[in-house]
Each structure stands twice: as C-alpha cells, then as structure tokens.
Specification:
This protein is an alpha/beta fold and 334 residues long. The protein is built from twelve helices and nine strands. Helix 6 (169-178) links the parallel strand 5 (162-165) and strand 6 (181-184).
Length: 334
C-alpha cells in the first residue's frame, strides 16, 4: 500500500454552487479528521457538469482556514491557460496561508473549446505547457524574470511540490527531467488492465529518470466506492453510473467507435472499484500500479452518491479499505 492516502472529488453535478462549495469543504475537514494525508480538486471552466471549480486556489485557501494538517492539492490546474507568473504568485500565497501544505498539480488540458474561449490556441497546448512550466518553476525558485523582477511572496520549497498529470512512460520521464512529481489519473473504460500496466510502467520510468536531490513521488488516482455490497453500491451510484456510461459512449462515438457500452460493461472494465469493502480491497490489490505509487488518491465520480453517502465512503476507506491494504495514518504503512 502507498504510504499516503488522498481523497479527490469533482465539484460537479447541477446543485447550488454555494452548497457544493460548502459541502466539499466539510468533506475535506472530515477527511483530515479521519487521517487522510491529502485532498485534491480539479480545475474546470464554464460550469460543465463534470466539474464546476474554475479557481481551485481560492477554494483551497478557504479549506486551509478550516484545517491544520492535511495537504491541499490541485489535480490539475490547466497551466497552458494560466499566466505562469500570476499562478506562481497565487500558489505562493495559498502555500503561506496553509503553512506549506499546497501540492500544485498541473496539466496541459484536453478541451479545445476551453482554450479558444480563453483566447489560447489549442494546437499550441504542448508548447504552452512546456514554456509555462519553465517560467513557473523559475518563478517559484526566486529566479529573476526577464525584467529583473522576482515573484513575491516567496513560498519556500513549493517548487519541490509541483506535480504533472501524466499517463504514459515517456511523459513520466519528461516530468522527472523537469523535477516535478507525477499524478497518474484514473483509467477510461475499455482495456483498463492495459491502462493499469501502462501506469505501472510510467511509475517505473519516472523513478528511473529521477535525478534530483529530493525524493520524486508518484500519486495514483482510483475511483472507489465501498458500501454494504455490490447491489447497494450500484443503487447508490445509479445517477453517477448512468452519467459515466453516457460520457464513455460519447467519447467512443467521437473516436469512431460503436458507443454501445452498457453499465455492466463499464463495471466489468474495472474502472470503478465499487461494492463491499472486500470487493474494493480485492480490486485495488489486483491493480499493478497501486504498489508502485507513493500515494493512493481515492476519488468519487463527477456527480457522486450525495454528501452523506460520500462522508460514509470516506469513513469506510479510512477505517477499513486502506488499513486492509496496509495504510496507517501519518504516512506509516504497516
């Protein structure tokens, strides 16, 4: 079992945004009380149902005021659509407010419409990511800008807590070369076993390429939902599963596939680890990428099972699922 346990949630769905923000804050407070090591949120623009948090850093600053220990992560901020110097400034402020608890996860983005709406060329995504990362890291390290200015305030050590979302081994090597940790996302429906193997290979490639004087880290995200048993879990996740299957079929159809995935197909793919505690533990034990990660980030879906059931899921993960895999609070695996 990885030494750290994280919790990731989308601020998705169609509920009142103020209520979603408040309930997510309560989930993060509960996660700290249950011993989780980290909590993570993603950036999504324009109120899309899969996530409605365009500004993760102000939200995490608010969470920092309600917590004392738990680490606060972004998974991810879309760096090509951000000014890297301004992002460095905002990240430094949040890191200082939280007492050095920020984990700054970055990604290159996937939705061309977002780039266009924000005035960026989606075809330049890779170049924007590469150049933005270079400027961001230099800014966080206190290196002068071309104008001679230096980013203020300085958050000591934040440059060593920058992550990149990757999937394939070659991207993991690039992250290692840049001195950033890696976030491995959940697999998509299809050949999830191949995806898990690729992510295991990415972990190995990252560690082989890492040459910096501080430890390089791998965080692995997996959707989990323990409940009384599989039928109960399916019932409680009915809206989420319907949404996930429809989304998977849309992606498949756009790629020229059949787009005929059923709910049972989706569950059989192994993308979601749901069912009893034993079911979830068995699924995670069979995942070849899990033992190669430093941190397992358990996530719920875009819509999820609702606030109260998510609270119960957090308790089951912290008190039964993760301990069965060898995790102990405080980064001390058994």
């Amino acid at each position: 079992m990885p030494e750290r346990l994280g919790f990731f949630t989308y601020l998705g769905g169609t509920g009142d945004p103020a209520r979603v923000l408040a309930e997510t804050t309560e989930l993060f407070v509960a996660a700290e009380e249950l011993g989780f090591d980290s909590v993570w949120v993603a950036q999504h623009h324009f109120g899309h149902i899969v996530g409605r948090l365009p500004s993760p850093l102000p939200f995490l600053a608010s969470v920092a005021a309600r917590t004392r220990r738990i680490r606060l992560g972004t998974a991810v901020v879309i760096l090509p659509t951000e000014h890297p110097v301004r992002l460095a400034e905002d990240a430094a402020v949040v890191d200082l407010l939280s007492g050095g608890r920020l984990e700054l996860g970055l990604g290159s983005g996937t939705d061309p419409a977002v780039f266009t709406a924000l005035g960026y060329d989606p075809d330049q995504r890779r170049e924007l990511m590469r150049d933005g990362l270079r400027t961001l890291l230099a800014s966080l390290r206190g290196e002068p800008l071309p104008t001679g200015d230096v980013v203020y305030p300085t958050a000591s050590g934040l440059d060593r807590r920058v992550w990149q979302g990757v999937f394939l081994p070659e991207r993991a090597r690039e992250a290692a070369a840049a001195g950033t940790h890696v976030l491995l996302p959940r697999a998509l429906p299809g050949d999830s076993r191949l995806a898990e193997r690729q992510q295991a290979d990415a972990s190995i490639a990252f560690r082989e390429a890492w040459a910096w004087p501080w430890p390089g880290r791998v965080a692995l995200s997996r959707p989990v939902y323990p409940s009384a048993d599989l039928p109960t879990a399916r019932c409680e996740l009915a809206e989420e599963l319907t949404f996930q299957v429809a989304q998977a079929n849309r992606i498949s159809a756009r790629a020229g596939g059949a787009g005929t995935l059923t709910e049972q197909d989706f569950l059989d793919s192994g993308v979601f680890h749901i069912g009893s505690v034993e079911d979830v533990v068995t699924g995670l034990r069979a995942d070849p990428a899990v033992p190669l990660a430093d941190e397992l980030i358990c996530q719920v879906g875009h819509i999820g099972p609702g606030h109260e059931r998510t609270l119960r899921m957090l308790e089951l993960v912290a008190t039964q699922v993760a301990p069965a895999l060898g995790w102990r609070p405080g980064g001390r695996p058994s």
